[in-house]
Amino acid sequence: MPDQPAKPTTHDSAPRMETIVSLCKRRGFIFQSSEIYGGAASTWDYGPLGVELKRNVKNAWWRSMVLDRDDIVGLDAAILMAPQVWVASGHVAAFTDPLVECKSCHARHRADHLKNNTCPNCGGKDLTEARNFNLMFKTNMGPMEDSSSVVYLRPETAQGIFVNFENVMTTTRRKLPFGIGQIGKAFRNEITPGNFTFRTREFEQMEMEFFCKPGTDEQWHKYWLEERFNWYLKLGMRKDKLRLRHHEKDELAHYAKGCADVEYLFPMGWSELEGIANRADFDLTQHAKHSGKKLEYFDEETKERVVPYVIEPSGGADRGTLAFLIDSYREEMAPTGEGKEETRIVLRIHPALAPVKVAILPLSKNEKLTPLAKDVLKAVRGSIDGLVQYDDAQSIGRRYRRQDEIGTPACVTVDFESLEDNAVTIRDRDTMTQMRVKILDLVSTLKEKLAIK
Ligand code: GAP
Predict the structure, then answer these.
(1) Which carries the bigger pLDDT value, residue 339 or residue 66?
(2) pLDDT: is 4 or 377 the higher one?
(3) In the chain, which segments carry CATH 3.30.930.10?
(4) Which CATH number does 19-90+143-324 carry?
(5) Of 398, 359, 75, 375, which Cα lies nearest the Cα of 208?
(6) How far apart are CA 60 and CA 63, in angstroms?
(7) Which residue has a Cα nearest atom 4 of ligand 1?
(8) Interval 221-269: pLDDT, tens
(9) Helices 439-450 and 369-383: angle between axes, nearest 10 degrees
């Protein structure tokens, strides 16, 4: 058994957003879009680590919402849809935010986000009357740029599900209740994007429309509130940073009969992570009316046709990723091994979400150690789902710190003893404790460590 270092001490203060933005840039999680041209406002690119992290968030959602269930199937609908979809859904008429302009500095703001009707840019109080600003991005389909060719970039993925309700129900021979899940890009011309990736104009949603019999909707709404809240907890989010908030009647979206948000305590305060709405029969009824197609369910038992009610958990993949990053960020005092202490930055992120799952670290570059370490790398890469890194540059202490900062749950050290005992050391990210395991048992030990429990 290797010597165990003293435990690190965590200072549990929440990080500031700038700290997270800086970590994301420094380590390649998230970059400003089009940075070499001075950046495109409020748009972000996921770098080599960010793409893994966000993909892991989406995969965890897909596993829990689609793969692990008998009552939900998946879909991947197009972003561009017939423009009538957005008339029927009410988005053309009602998907608006109140826009005001400051008469002094001409900055534009969302009226409902202002404090004391004051311009946050210059402090001016002379603002224009609020007007409804539609958030949908418009573009033209085909070579003609006139009103007949206008199409919209979808502002929610949900409508792709509603218009495919009949297709999915008949091809999969589903009975109520059942759900259709989808992950994909959505676009909103937000008046005031900001807070890093929290509010952007292009983002990804993870949405599921759960179709149920009218009258059972309240019960399913409660069920999904609990399920979705617990999903964040199961993936390690701190309970004291999460809460459910029920909407007041005047906050409800035009389609909703009821709604509650899962909120997270972001650096700027409690903010929505996911909305769980009861959309009743609003969407199917509207699409039936506008398309002329019946969108109903025939109940074999009662021999009645019903328009299903819909419960919709709708989360943001980018917001979720940001919340998982913020929630797992820690600055700790940790022993250096030379009787001193230093600050270590560590992402105590759930192993299922960690961008790098395992790092293979040969103690030094050496003609005997390197081939063994490469063999270990090959065995681990072939069996672990996710990124496995190999790093033999700089001291082992520095390499551990580099992996801590990006949340790698396990570092595997291959040392000179490994050549004799066919064993390696697994160093745990959170406790910094070390465990010696036979190379033959390495993959099964790592799999156990990385599983969602
Ligand atoms: N289909 C329902 C719907 O779209 P929403 O509350 O407007 O509901 C759902 O959006 C989720 O999508 C939000 O909880 C949030 O996580 C994410 N989202 C919405 N607008 C966003 C934006 N501008 N930037 C990033 N994420 C956004």
Answers:
(1) 66
(2) 377
(3) 19-90+143-324
(4) 3.30.930.10
(5) 75
(6) 5
(7) 156
(8) 999 999 999 999 999 999 999 999 999 998 898 889 999 999 999 999 9
(9) 40
Q: What are the start-end ranges of the E strands in 70-177?
A: 72-75, 96-101, 108-110, 131-134, 138-140, 150-152
Question: Tokens representing 399?
Answer: 């390499």
14 confidence band (pLDDT: 50, 70, 90): confident
Atom of ligand 1 nearest to the CA of 207: 1
pLDDT at 453: 64
Domain 354-450, CATH homologous superfamily name and number? Anticodon-binding domain (3.40.50.800)
pTM for the whole structure: 0.94
Q: Is the Cβ–Cβ distance between 59 and 231 less than 8 Å?
A: no
CA of 316 to the centre of ligand 1 (A): 6
Q: Which of 272, 279, 311 to mutate to test the pocket of ligand 1 (most atoms within 8 A of CB)?
A: 272
What's the CA-to-centroid distance between 209 and ligand 1, angstroms? 15
Pocket test for ligand 1, best of 91, 162, 319 (most atoms within 8 A of CB): 319
Counting ligand 1 atoms within 8 A of each CB, the residue from 205, 245, 246 with the most, and so the one to mutate, is 205
